[in-house]
Amino acid sequence: MSRNVGSVDRIIRVVVGLLLIAYAIPIGFSQTGWNWVGWIGVVPLLTAVFGYCPAYSLFGMSTCPQQS
After folding, report:
1. What is the pLDDT of residues 15-59, one digit of tens each?
2. CA-CA distance, 15 to 41, in Å (whole number)?
3. Based on the structure, what is the number of domains in the chain?
4. Contact 19/37 with Cβ under 8 angstroms?
5. In Å, how far are 1, 20, 29, 31, 45 from 16, measured between CA atoms?
6. 67 belongs to a structural domain
7. Is residue 14, in this structure, part of any structural domain at all?
8. In a domain, 21, yes or no
9. Handedness of CA 21, 64, 55, 47 (dihedral sign)
10. Model-level pTM?
């Protein structure tokens, strides 16, 4: 499993993942019934941590610079 997620892509994934998870955590009266959608934020967070995105592999994409 080689890395296919570059550093800028990883930062974006961490920010999006944390924002989604923050949406999932009910604070006060912010229960909308759709808060469960926020837990999808775990996916971009994990892909950022491991530096590997299965969807990128499926489509043959990579944002990681080539290593020589």
Report:
1. 999 999 988 887 766 677 888 888 999 999 999 999 999 999 999
2. 9
3. 1
4. no
5. 24, 6, 23, 20, 8
6. no
7. yes
8. yes
9. negative
10. 0.83
